[in-house]
């Protein structure tokens, strides 16, 4: 049995689509289909059932997943054994909520790639947690620690959020001395039914029931606040990138959250991923501390 065919099988099983698996593997969908058919012929059983929702595993396909993943881990271990001890190379895909993906990971990825010239980092900004079982990413950053799934969960760092407004907006609207004053101001926040984690429900801390402008994206919310559309809760580490913003009611609204690093349990034995996770965690902590310090230096 060809390992490369098993690799293609796993991609289809995880993506439930020939075209999506092809994009992951860098080949066209028809080639993926032919390789799956070749594997099915070699095994003597159908591995997938085509449905309106995509490609679903048959019973034979379900039985093949575990040995195929064992072969995948062995192939990864063999590849790691041939790499230079002095450096870390290859591709690393990180899934992250867009606040982290926009304001932390670009400079962290730049530093890591400079330190490891053979490293290629892909940042997937998502309004949800990346599905590691389907291998959407090698590791994921989350705002809460999941209690289900075959995952290795590591606390990364605490971070702070602040109510903020654009300087001109604040100068041109009624003064804000208490939470009650917020009722006279427009608020920016998340779309309520698109909050994928309870830790993102920031608006309740302000006592204001609804937002005038809402988005499932932290970056869109930030740009709306920057445009003077109203007040909103923003990451402290993001505020140095938008110097027009000013903290509001800092003594009355103080939110603290945590970032968590998630990895698939099967990757625990990967020396390469262990080293990358350790470096990523350290750099995230340092960058949050650096940016939050800059915020108060400029206050």
From TrEMBL:
Keywords: DNA-binding, Transcription, Transcription regulation. It comes from the Bacteria. GO terms for molecular function: DNA binding; DNA-binding transcription factor activity. Residues 1-58 form the HTH lysR-type domain. InterPro entries: LTTR (IPR050176), LysR_HTH_N (IPR000847), LysR_subst-bd (IPR005119), WH-like_DNA-bd_sf (IPR036388), WH_DNA-bd_sf (IPR036390). Belongs to the LysR transcriptional regulatory family. This is DNA-binding transcriptional regulator, LysR family. It comes from Paracoccus alcaliphilus.
